Amino acid sequence: MRKKCIVSDLDGTLLKEGEERLPEEFFDGIRELRSRKIDFVVASGRSYGDLKKLLAPVLYEVTMICEEGAAIIQKGKMLHCRPISRETVEHWVKEAKRQKAELLLAGKHTCYTEYENEGLRSRYQKQRRAVMPVRDVREVTEPVLRMSFFLGSGEKGGWIRRKGEKDHEVRISFQDESWLDLVLAEADKGSALQWLLKERGLSVEEVLVFGDNTNDIPMFHLVPDSFAMKWAKEEVRREAGYESACVMESVREFLKRQL
To answer: Per the record, GO CC terms (predicted)?
Structure first.
């Protein structure tokens, strides 16, 4: 079946480790796809503010699944949103303050953290990621799509992980030695993509999906034609139908079969 939509993860897939900018060839590829009436969707754990900067040359030619599937944005308009309830956010903010843990809240437009969290703000800004300091994160009025904790070391990190695993309102969407992210339990890239395809009247057979991490697996399971990047872990590669070293090259090769 003719492909009408390409969906790709960003970090580790389109943007290789250590890279800060997408190459001009990628933007040319987007324009080429649009000329063939093929949509391009970027599915990322990043905020809309980050994606807006990275995708500026083609901002109005792509759709963005942001914050691990908690939001879908096109041409600056929020198409779909799965925010964390205000009650849950306030509970976690209270606990974070009690534990003296550094917390960052992600909304549609940017991320927020308190003035006193200078270390956290510095780490985000070094990565060229949008963050706004506020006096108190409880002042944030826009819907919260993600809560991010800087873990540090020791018992503080263990406490957040244990609590996150027990809270049924949210799920751990990402964690490493330094960070732990929480999003709404029902929000993931796969469910967001499923909503988008239904909204656009597309079948799963009309879609190609690319990714490199475990958070991309729900998308792999949704469509018959999925690609894991060749450097992805085995647990990720075995869930995809194919492997790829370059998204745009794989897309062109696949589309040639349609001619």
So the answer is: cytosol
